[in-house]
Amino acid sequence: MEAMTLPDLRELIPEATISISALIAILVGALARNYSSARRIAPAVALIGLVAAVPLMFAVPHATTVPTARFEGVFVADAFAVCLKLLFSAVGVIATLVSVNFLEAERQANGEYYGLLLLAVVGMMLTASARDVVLLFLGLEVLSLSTYVLVGYLRKDPHSTESAIKYFLLSSFATALLLYGLSLLYGISGGTSYAAIRAAGAHLSGDLRLVAMLSVVFLTAGIGFKATLVPFHMYAPDVYQGAPGCVAAFLAVGPKLAAFGALIRLLVEAMPGFASEWVPLLTVVSILTMTIGNLVALSQSNVKRMLAYSSIAHAGYMLIGIVAAFTPGVTADVRSQALAAVVYYLVAYTFMKMGAFGILLSIKPGDRFAETLDDLRGLGRRRPLAAALLLVFLLSLIGIPLTAGFTAKFYVFSSAISAGCYTLAIAGILNAVVAATYYSRIAIALYAVEPGRGEPYAAGGISLKVALAASAIAILLLGIFPGRVLETALQSVRSLF
Q1: Which of 6, 119, 312, 402 has its CB 3.0 to 4.6 Å from that of 293, i.e. a possible disulfide?
Q2: Which 3 state secondary structure label does DSSP give 146?
Q3: Backbone torsion region of residue 329, taken as left when φ is above 0, otherwise alpha when ψ lies between -120 and 50, otherwise beta
Q4: CA angle at residue 155 from 151 to 160, to 5 degrees?
């Protein structure tokens, strides 16, 4: 291996920029003379770091069909990685804006929060560029360690502490399963790079084929935990409900995006030869994830838990596109379009879900933030703008035309039909109808119910309003003009082949 020089590190500049910003934010919290300085400077540092990383992603040459030789193919900055990193940066920006008002209300606006949030984004970026299982594991662990602390950030809140313990213990178990699956891949391939695993997978037979099947099961468990796939979803409702509201918004989106990005690259570049093992498995997991997520959400009165189960169901929808892409006999065009539909769904899901969770942080009946359907009663009369924004997010989550949610579902279901996966397509459509039932309950509470006699609702700060407005606008633009984003997604997934 040749000595690494500074020019060889150019592809890591975006990650390095955000990492440095994280350290600065932490130092601001530690060295600021007073609390007021920390709460103003730390989020500004986080936003500057995230925004500054965006142009740097385009300042380096990107691999197209041939992987970069830097880091011996461990790390790649191709179009797919850049597309995901842009989305991850957007998630970081929205999460930062959503957090400011909440943390100030809790008197917890310290620099380490924003530092941990940025490090979580760095972990997400590493998973998007990983072409080696070691780097994939490292990226997932950087993300996990940061989110463990974020979930338990409100140390004096017993619910936050309980959620952090649950998340840590269950995530540790999932990590062990992931490591075991990766060790099996190493055993049958003799290497840790995706290229070595792919080469070995083309010639497996007999007992080694059985080992490959076991590795797929364990990898599904490890990555499925981050993506909240059934049966590895059980932690999500409890953790989302107990976590600080701003952390719940990030947790419902960030790890899921990283998991699906990592899963797409892993399946395309390392495990296409194992498709006969994992396509049937993921088909069953997709149907169970959609169905269980939606059916359990029907019985929820706590909106945070309802949104948690909803996020589980959306993971099932996304999995439809991945299964369709690798169904035996599909053409290259159908495969690319199916994966592009998944990437588009990730973009739409980001704004819908973070907007829905963010709205709850702008509503404060009494001394706590809104969580239940009763808290939303009559919001259309008390706070018409907040109610209108929440309605936009709900319509998109349902899949009403002219919203990003409708377009995302349409592309994913269409890809399933093109690939001949009619069972998945029918299951997805039926589940979308079921989901409309519990989303409608929220809408009814907003407009069709007389307002209660509680205290007036407190509106959020300017940063929260900007995040919510931007998310709503993005949902409408993506729904009305989807072509540019879909074309970008298509070009990005083609760089994988």
Answers
A1: 312
A2: helix
A3: left
A4: 40
For residue 67, name the pLDDT band (cuts at 50, 70, 90).
very low
Q: Hunting for tokens 């690259």 — which residue is that?
A: 265
Confidence (pLDDT) at 69: 45
Greater model confidence, 456 or 110: 110
Amino acid identity for residue 120 in this structure? A
Rounded (10°) CA dihedral 469, 471, 474, 476: -70
User: What span, in angstroms and rounded, lies between the C-alpha atoms of 422 and 118?
Assistant: 41
pLDDT digits (tens, 9 = 90+) for 86-116: 999 999 999 999 988 888 877 776 778 899 9
Tell me if 332 sits within 8 A of 494, measured CB to CB.
no
Every domain of the chain and the residues it spans: 271-497
Amino acid at 20: I
The C-alpha atoms of residue 79 and residue 383 are separated, in whole angstroms, by: 42
Please give the C-alpha separations between residue 319 and each of 196, 313, 315, 427, 456, in angstroms, as whole numbers: 26, 10, 6, 12, 42
Identify the weakest region by mean pLDDT among 66-80, 88-102, 273-287, 295-309.
Answer: 66-80
Give 453's contacts (C-beta < 8 A, 6+ positions apart).
none
Tokens describing residue 300? 């929820």
Distances (CA, A) of 471 to 251, 393, 425, 497: 17, 9, 28, 32
Q: Rg of the chain over CA atoms, in angstroms?
A: 22
Q: What is the DSSP string of 294-308?
A: HHHHTT--BHHHHHH
Instruction: Give ∠ CA 81-309-467 in degrees, rounded to 5.
Output: 55
Name the more confident of 368 and 429: 429
